[in-house]
Amino acid sequence: MKKSYKINYFKEIDSTNAYALRNLAELSDKQIIVADKQTAGKGRLNRSWISNRENNVYLSIALKPCDKVNNNLPLVNLTQYMSVVICKILEKYGVTPEIKWANDVLVDGKKIAGILAQSSIQGEVFKGLVLGVGINLNLSQEDIQLINQPATSLNLILGNFVDRDRFIEQLLDDFFENYDAFLNQGFSFIKKEYTDRINFLNKKISVTVLDCIENGIAKEIADDGSLLLLTENMEQKVITMGDICINESLY
Ligand code: BTN
After folding, report:
1. Percent share of the chain, pLDDT over 70
2. Long-range contacts: 124-128, Cβ < 8 Å, 24+?
3. Pairing mode, strands 31-38 and 6-13
4. In the prediction, which pLDDT does 247 show?
5. Which domains are delineated in the chain?
6. What confidence score (pLDDT) does residue 251 get?
7. Whose CA is nearest to atom 11 of ligand 1?
């Protein structure tokens, strides 16, 4: 079947996200940038994403749903949609992944995939969005030690080499199969599949938003994908951004 997307391959690049953002005007909607290595891979919150090993996923998708502009596009939930797509593929490999709100994918509590969405806005005009995906498919134990948070890689879990190109093809086919339905229906389209895979509901968590930390119990994922937190002071708070960590030893 004809693919709805095209792929540009690079042996080495600074960052597939940075490249896509720089060249967004020339890129077509659904254009994919894949690199074997990145020299300046970026993670969320200005962290770096170690990207110096081949046969891992370093890719970005340029999305320009601008013809559909109606202000109701669920763009903030695209990373959550992608996290579900990644989980479903990992499950086909026999692995049981979990999602750490909002969109980290973990196996056995260790991060295997990260997603970084960056929008391009000029003045008040939305020009498009770059959705970057990094997935550890083939890292060594030594590589893992260099990552500054608990991390894992699919090859280490399965005990064998993982074919990157096959994984990327599955990822993109699955992402685009339901992309239009997701844009039309928003988070509700994935709410069940998302909540079935989260690991922190009804647990004590700490949420870090910029420099503030809020402790509480994660009560629910709302219909718009935000997190409802019952704080230590018994207040209900709606969390729309931040990093969470499960912290059973709290109060
Ligand atoms: C995170 O911090 O969890 C997000 C990591 C996103 C990494 C990917 S790798 C491909 C794309 N290019 C980048 O520079 N970052 C994203």
Report:
1. 96
2. 126/66, 126/69, 127/24, 127/25, 127/64, 127/66, 128/24, 128/27, 128/29, 128/62, 128/63, 128/64, 128/66
3. parallel
4. 78
5. 6-195 (3.30.930.10), 204-247 (2.30.30.100)
6. 63
7. 132
Choose which residue among 8, 58, 63 to substitute to test ligand 1 binding: the one with the highest number of ligand atoms within 8 A of its C-beta: 58
Q: Roughly what angle, to the nearest 10 degrees, separates helices 78-92 and 164-177?
A: 130
Give nearest CA residue, ligand 1 atom 10. 58
Q: What is the pLDDT of residues 31-79, one digit of tens each?
A: 999 999 999 999 998 899 999 999 999 999 999 987 655 567 778 899 9
Length of the chain: 251
For residue 51, which phi and psi values (nearest 5 degrees)?
Answer: -140, 30
**Residue-level pLDDT at 77:** 94
Ligand 1 centroid – CA 250 distance (Å): 31
In the 8-state DSSP scheme, what is residue 61?
E
Q: Among 49, 130, 171, name the best residue to mutate to test ligand 1's pocket (greatest count of ligand atoms within 8 A of Cβ).
A: 49
pLDDT given at position 19: 98
> End-to-end distance of the chain based on CA atoms, in angstroms?
55
**Pair of tokens at residue 245:** 């960590």
Q: Which residues line ligand 1 (CB under 6 A)?
A: 15-17, 38, 41-44, 47, 49, 58-60, 104, 114-116, 132-134
Amino acid occupying residue 245:
C
CA distance 2 to 67: 22
